Sequence to fold (418 residues):
Amino acid sequence: MIEIAGMSVKELADTYQTPLMVYDENKLRQKMSDFMHYFQSDTFETGVLYASKAFSCKEILRLANEYGMCLDVVSGGELYTAGQVNFPMERVYFHGNNKSLAEMKMAIEYGVGTIIVDNLQEAQVFNELAKNSDHVIHILLRINPGIDAHTHKYIVTGHVDSKFGVSMLQEEEIVRVIKTFDENEHTVFEGFHAHIGSQIFDKNAFAAEIKKMFGFVKKMEEDHGIVLNTVNLGGGFAATYTDADAPIPLPEVCATILDTAKAQQDERQTHVKKLLIEPGRSIVAEAGSTIYTAGFTKQTPNKNYVFVDGGMADNIRPALYQAAYDADVANKDDQPKTVTYTIAGKCCESGDLLIEGIKLPPCQAGDLIIVYTTGAYGYSMASHYNKLPLPAVVFVKDGKARVVIERESYEHMIALEK
Fold:
């Protein structure tokens, strides 16, 4: 029987039912510790922002705070969650391409330390709102460096036609954004943010991003007299989903980023003081697994199906952008994998297929199927499609489990309905 952090999958399923999302807490802690350790520099002040969108709940934010991480939020809901665990607001960065007035006011009220504005219109609106702030707010602008990180088209975010940020080609608009905050005593424009994609396996993509960013920082100084001190390089750090994935080792990717940035600083004589990154997926993805109970099986002329008690409602990624996963039958891990299956969910969509063409032992009702590396964008993208309640989430450490998100009841699911 397969175990997670010292607990058998069967014990977890029997105790908490399925579908169940399980995190190995030691893996979470190790990843946070490693990022904080390896992303250190003698040249720059460094910061590691946990990207809430990958997986946000009170307990994961408590862990991030424990390790001294900063926090990336993109909505009022993510900010509210941070507030509920007293996350230090000076270490919170508020992103988003279409922040509402209510969210911007909320950020000011909560005392958020840094706002990443996405465009000129937002900059103008937020600048007016910030005049009522009782604290100084640091401002970054998201720009698009035009880097193609060779990821799926839905998760490439740094190209010039992205919905996010302002293209480097729109230099006049970027200068206008910066000058918008010049005369506001409650704001300080610090620098630029960029994000070139997700699940990046080529460290040269990060190096290319850094060179363009530092080059643009220098251009702002030479052409417009604007001296900038912060560069946020975003995320994109990859995780291992299947044997086909080969993420860059964390020490290597951190060294690449820091060494390239230092070389650019020396070469261009820029004045960047702070360097930031935003790992989310790579912290939580591999630490998380989802346990399902197999139901019926079905054989068609070309496929063998095994149906599970979850699906696209708790993991939309395979249907959304053909994300690949690996899995095992937890209670048959000692048996040969002789049958090629399609693991399908129970949602009423033909595209509700979690994994296609995977070799498993012969499956039958009651088997426990564990899908690996579901810790990122599983729960955070989960839905109530077909009125399926959200699964429970447990953290397991040294053979002991604790519930961090309770399983949703039917009553809770319809509590807001009239």
